[in-house]
Design goal:
By secondary structure, the chain is α+β, with helices and mostly antiparallel strands. It has five helices and two strands; from the N terminus they run H-E-E-H-H-H-H. The protein has a two-stranded antiparallel ribbon.
């Protein structure tokens, strides 16, 4: 119960004064040593969280940890796939610029970076345009002829 908790007296006093919450239960969500967040339950009745309700909430917490870990794993895999595709497009654009303008790899990347900055566009989008058209956007292409 919020009013009987002694570990965080200032926090509990504020919760009691500013909200209708009178019972709180929180679980730190962790899976394989990786912190995933916190699952918190609140109730406006004092003493709401009996042993049975705490046990049920713990099951929800365990399922939540597994679901969050799975979602994070899926997001990570999706980001890696995007990064791999982006890297390939940038490498292709660099190769095209190296061949077209007879420059080295670092110079080709610098050109992509400059076009990206000056045009306020993502580097991957500029690289995709170069890969599609075979050249830099026209103002930059004229500057490097």
């Amino acid at each position: 119960m919020v009013e009987q908790e002694t570990r965080w007296p200032e926090y509990c006093a504020r919760v009691a004064a500013l909200t209708p919450v009178r019972s709180a239960l929180a679980f730190y969500l962790e899976l394989d040593g990786v912190g995933l967040g916190v699952l918190a339950f609140y109730e406006d009745r004092p003493g709401w969280f009996t042993d049975d309700r705490i046990e049920l909430a713990a099951i929800y917490a365990d399922h939540s940890a597994v679901a969050l870990a799975k979602a994070a794993e899926h997001d990570h895999a999706a980001h890696l796939a995007i990064a791999l595709q982006t890297n390939r497009i940038i490498a292709e654009a660099i190769g095209i610029l190296m061949s077209t303008y007879k420059i080295d790899e670092a110079q080709a990347f610098d050109l992509l970076r400059l076009v990206s900055q000056h045009g306020n566009r993502k580097l991957r989008d500029v690289a995709a345009d170069v890969a599609h058209t075979g050249t830099l956007p026209e103002p930059m292409a004229r500057a490097h002829r």
